Amino acid sequence: MNASTNTNPTQARSSTCPSASARCSSWSRPVSVDVDIANILGISVRTVRSYLDRIRDKTGERRRPGLTMIAIKKGLVPEPQEI
Question: So what's the pLDDT on residue 68?
């Protein structure tokens, strides 16, 4: 955290988690692995897994393809284009 900001770290973390979780969900297509998601978002692999676990708990969906479908239906990611 930048020393010049006066933001409470807990407050900053809680305010960024929902959007970060959404971004993790949006990158959870089956071809992506946790390491790729972490690199794209600039967070740790452990954080990616934590976000995905929270999303699984909230949605009840355990499999990655199911999470991807939820993200598509909610408009977090575009539908895949047919080749």
Answer: 86
